[in-house]
């Protein structure tokens, strides 16, 4: 069995430093937990070990000998297997084919050995047979499976490598309790065989149930390693927080007399894919934050309010009037705006001029077939200038702008006609610090003028410094509301990581 040592791993993507100094010592026969907040660098460190990311600096030693992991195939040859947080399945292939994909059995050096493939897949599937659920079988196409079943296939795919070092990056995020328990039984068996396992999870109860040691990464640096038996949840969270356990700055104290202000948005008992029983109100002039780890239902709730995704139960009201919100068109008509951090998918019109990117919502909301270009250009310039957008002219292709300026154009399109509610779904994703500063200055000004704003951010500092209240999401539900003196980084982490 193998011992892995990583020292001083570093990785930057342009000006963004994803990993400053990553250290990890993994021993045979242990489950080693890796924990850190969103963007701390833990997934980057694992991808370096798996060969899918090349480090800029640092060294990797396997059984005391320096190794270079040139790619995923080289990692597999060294006995390293990985479960990726972002599923890497072939949707139209069968469960059995996906499980064996990393090393398809062949005969004659050319043809896939179907009998060997099916036998290998059947052996691995059998371990999960009674918890996999209806419709799960070796010959089922992956695109017919539920989210939890696809995640099981990804786990089985990693197990099929029979690697001596296995990395699981948040493998339980979509699994139910019975599936998690079975997976942990298998991990304990692997540990008894002498395998070395890296386990990343955002569920504190899981970490203490399965881990032997825990390494904390904060802001791109490894800050410490402890035996699970010699620490507790509070100590681990303190290491994650570090010294930055401060309140939001006094400049963003809740607006005066906010309790007397009328609710511009009311949500009651909202449930749908990825979230359940979510209720809250947003007052005019308030910035309500959505906190918690990435993928805990925050974006799904926002998209449901905006009519982009469906919800099963619950009600949504704007300015006291209940709205069905069956489509984004309906949401826009009632004064609701939505800005996604994924501007390539939900934002910009690729290859088109800035003018065409900034005006479509104005046409839609006002049901315009024709418009006077001169007056519309003047109206389009106002929000662009308010956001300090850098561009040469409205006919300039949006693709020629920086990422931050592209996002400013996306936000500006919603401000030509002032909405009542602005939903910001991780809006600063991938933009620079200067652009973030401009954006949050405008958000505060919009709130001061009476707009209701819901802000989800994967960066805790953005929430603590800009939100008047923070609802912390965990496993699709709101588990805690942070107000006043409770708005600390420690409380935010504690609510995000505790068992829901």
Indicate the topology.
Elements: E1 4-13, E2 16-26, E3 30-35, H1 42-50, E4 57-62, E5 65-67, H2 72-77, E6 80-83, H3 95-99, E7 106-107, E8 111-112, H4 114-126, H5 147-159, E9 165-169, H6 177-192, E10 196-200, H7 204-210, E11 213-218, E12 221-227, H8 233-241, E13 263-272, E14 275-283, E15 287-291, H9 298-305, E16 313-318, E17 321-323, H10 328-333, E18 336-340, H11 343-346, H12 354-358, H13 360-366, H14 373-386, H15 403-412, E19 421-425, H16 433-448, E20 452-456, H17 460-466, E21 469-474, E22 477-483, H18 489-497
Parallel strand pairs: 3-10, 3-11, 6-9, 9-10, 15-20, 15-21, 18-19, 19-20
Antiparallel strand pairs: 1-2, 1-4, 4-5, 7-8, 11-12, 13-14, 13-16, 16-17, 21-22
Helix pairs in contact: 8-18, 14-15
Summary keywords:
500 residues, alpha/beta, Rossmann fold, 2 domains, 6-stranded mixed beta sheet, 33% helix, transport, Sugar ABC transporter ATP-binding protein, ABC_transporter-like_ATP-bd, ATP-binding, nucleotide-binding
């Amino acid at each position: 069995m193998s011992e892995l040592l990583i020292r001083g791993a570093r990785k930057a993507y342009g000006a963004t430093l994803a990993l400053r100094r990553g250290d990890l010592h993994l021993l045979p026969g242990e489950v080693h937990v890796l924990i850190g907040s969103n963007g701390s660098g833990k997934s980057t460190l694992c991808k370096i070990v798996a060969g899918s990311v090349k480090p800029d600096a640092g060294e990797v030693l396997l059984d005391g000998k320096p190794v270079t992991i040139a790619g995923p195939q080289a990692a597999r040859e060294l006995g390293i297997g990985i479960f990726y947080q972002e599923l890497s399945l072939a949707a139209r292939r069968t469960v059995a084919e996906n499980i064996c994909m990393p090393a398809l059995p062949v005969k004659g050096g050319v043809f896939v050995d179907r009998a060997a493939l099916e036998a290998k897949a059947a052996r691995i599937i059998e371990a999960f047979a009674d918890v996999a659920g209806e419709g799960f079988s070796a010959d089922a196409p992956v695109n017919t499976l539920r989210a939890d079943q696809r995640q099981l296939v990804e786990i089985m795919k990693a197990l099929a490598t029979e690697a001596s070092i296995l990395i699981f990056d948040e493998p339980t995020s979509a699994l139910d309790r019975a599936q998690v328990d079975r997976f942990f039984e298998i991990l304990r068996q692997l540990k008894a065989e002498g395998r070395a396992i890296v386990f990343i999870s955002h569920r504190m109860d899981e970490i203490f149930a399965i881990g032997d040691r825990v390494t904390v990464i904060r802001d791109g640096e490894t800050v410490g390693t402890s035996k699970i038996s010699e620490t507790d949840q509070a100590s681990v969270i303190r290491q994650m927080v570090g010294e930055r356990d401060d309140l939001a700055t006094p400049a963003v104290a809740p607006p005066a007399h906010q309790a007397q202000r009328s609710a511009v948005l009311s949500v009651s008992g909202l449930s749908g894919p990825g979230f359940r029983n979510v209720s809250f109100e947003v007052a005019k002039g308030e910035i309500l934050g959505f906190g918690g780890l990435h993928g805990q239902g925050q974006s799904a709730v926002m998209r449901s309010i905006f009519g982009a995704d469906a919800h099963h139960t619950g009600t949504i009201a704007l300015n006291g009037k209940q709205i069905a919100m069956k489509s984004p068109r309906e949401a826009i008509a009632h004064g609701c705006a939505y800005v996604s951090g994924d501007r390539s998918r939900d934002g910009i019109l690729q290859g088109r001029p800035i003018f065409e990117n900034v005006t479509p919502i104005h046409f839609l909301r006002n049901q315009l077939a024709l418009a006077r270009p001169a007056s519309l250009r003047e109206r389009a310039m106002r929000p662009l200038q308010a956001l300090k957008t850098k561009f040469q002219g409205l006919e300039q292709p949006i693709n020629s702008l920086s990422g931050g300026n592209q996002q400013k154009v996306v936000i500006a399109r919603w401000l030509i006609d002032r909405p009542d509610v602005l939903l910001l779904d991780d809006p600063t994703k991938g933009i620079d610090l200067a652009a973030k500063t401009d954006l949050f200055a405008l958000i505060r000004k919009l709130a001061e003028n009476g707009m209701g704003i819901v802000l989800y951010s994967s960066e805790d500092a953005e929430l603590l410094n800009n939100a008047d209240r923070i609802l912390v999401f965990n496993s699709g539900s709101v588990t805690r509301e942070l107000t006043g003196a409770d708005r600390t980084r420690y409380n935010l982490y504690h609510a995000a990581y505790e068992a829901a």
